[in-house]
Design goal:
single chain, about 290 residues, mainly alpha, Ferritin, 9 helices, 2 strands, extended, Mn_catalase_dom, metal ion binding, manganese
């Protein structure tokens, strides 16, 4: 059960309206790494959690907090759109300098949402659930969560740098701080899980069933050998089980693929000199008489 309180988690009060910046803020609301994504990702991970109750409780804590962040950003977008209806834009656009600025407003903010936020990114692409990851494997999910928070914090920082509005920056500084905590949180949870299981996901699959001779080989598949200097190319593997090996000139280990012709009902391509399967050769030759290439 969720219970809504009227107070925001933190202030969302811009100093001045800015419809162009409202469009930019849509990215951290409904974009791939926006607050809607982490909100839904964490909630579904929590609802589906079958592990230790402390992990479920932690996931639900952060998932519920992300609902508050969605509300804060939606509120900020709506207030950035205050005082910027279409008719005022059109009037302002008579001045070329002002028009160049206001011309970047998302028209859907006026036409579709009535000067409010929309569940879309900064170019109007609708948010969708394919952005989310909830696999049921906590280690895999927590690593995905760390990536989401890393990308999200990066985008918020870039937005912070692109405005001078003190009210907007105040809200963004709060979100940046929470993303700092959330990255630390997921790193702590990942470290804890790795202490109790192998670092490779899934840890329950018998490694003896792998082609183990290539399990720890870094293969040089591009020009240059600078990659041989990395931690991933020599020394103990990160899971502590083996040692990395650098393969400077990897060799092909598979067959040369050769597929059979498709059956007649597929109506695939017919190669020179080939009679499609199930077709009488004499009839085929007669039907194609005169079609030979010269």
């Amino acid at each position: 059960m969720f219970f809504h309180t009227k107070e925001l988690q933190y202030n969302a009060k811009p100093s001045n309206p800015d419809p162009v910046y409202a469009k930019k803020l849509q990215e951290i609301l409904g974009g791939q790494f926006g607050e809607m994504t982490v909100m839904m990702q964490y909630l579904f991970q929590g609802w589906n959690c079958r592990g230790d109750e402390k992990y479920k409780d932690m996931i639900m804590d952060i998932g519920t907090e992300e609902i508050a962040h969605v509300e804060m950003i939606a509120t900020m977008i709506a207030q950035l759109l205050d005082g910027a209806p279409v008719r005022e834009q059109e009037e302002a656009a008579k001045d070329p300098a002002i028009g160049a600025v206001l011309g970047g407003m998302n028209p859907q903010h006026a036409i579709v949402s009535g000067l409010g936020a929309t569940p879309t990114d900064s170019v109007g692409y609708p948010w969708n659930s394919r952005y989310t990851i909830a696999s049921g494997n906590l280690l895999a999910d927590f690593r995905a969560n760390l990536n989401a928070e890393s990308q999200g914090r990066l985008q918020v920082v870039r937005l912070y740098e692109s405005t001078t509005d003190p009210g907007v920056r105040d809200m963004l500084s709060f979100l940046i701080a929470r993303d700092t905590m959330h990255q630390n949180q997921w790193m702590a949870a990942i470290e804890e899980l790795e202490q109790n299981q192998k670092a490779i996901v899934p840890s329950t699959f018998p490694q003896t069933l792998e082609k183990q001779e290539v399990s720890y080989s870094f293969m040089n598949f591009s020009n240059g050998e600078e990659s041989s200097k990395g931690r991933w190319a020599s020394g103990k593997s990160m899971d502590g089980i083996s040692n990395f090996e650098y393969v400077a000139n990897p060799k092909a280990m598979g067959q040369i693929p050769k597929l059979k012709p498709s059956p007649a009902y597929i109506h695939g391509s017919v190669m020179p000199g080939q009679v499609p399967p199930g077709i009488d050769k004499a009839n085929f030759d007669q039907a194609n008489q005169g079609n030979e290439l010269h």
